Amino acid sequence: MCKSFKKIITCFVLIVMMLSIFTACGSKSDSTSKDSKTFTNKGNEEYKGTINLWSWTDEPKYMITQFNKAYPNINVKFTQIGQDYPTKMKTVLQAGTGVPDLFVGELKYVKQWLEIDAWDNLSASPYNAEDIAKNQMEYVQKLGRDKDGNLRALSWQATPGGFWYKRSMAKQYFGTDDPDKISKMMSTIDGLFDMGEKLYSKSNGKTHLLTNWQDLYWLQYGSRTKPWVKDGSLIIDQSLMDFFDLAKNARKENLDAKLTAWTPAWNNAANNSSIFGYILPTWGLQYVIKASAPKSEGDWAIAKGPTSYFQGGTWMGIYKNSKNKELAWQFLKYITSNEDYLKQYVADKGDFVSYIPVINTISDNYKDKFCGGQNTYKFFKEEASKINSAVITKYDDDINSLYFNAVGLYVDGKATKDKALTTFKKDVKNAYPDLKVE
Amino acid sequence: MKRLKIKTEGYGYFFIAPYFITFLVLQLYPILYTFFISFTKWDGMTKMTFVGLENYNRLIRDDVFYKTIGNTWIIWIANVIPQMVLAVLLAVVLNYKKIKGSDFFKSIFYLPNLVTATSIGVLFSVILDWQTGSLNRILIAIGILKQPVNWLNSPFYTRGTTSLIQWWMWFGYSTIIFDAGIKAISNDIYEAAIVDGANRRQTFWKITLPLLRPTVLYSTITSLIGGMQIFDIPMTLTDGLGNPQQSILTMVLYLYNTSFKRNNYGYGAAISYGLFVIILIASIILFKFINRKSLYD
Question: Which of B64, B125, B131 shows the shortest C-beta gap to A430?
Answer without folding.
Answer: B64
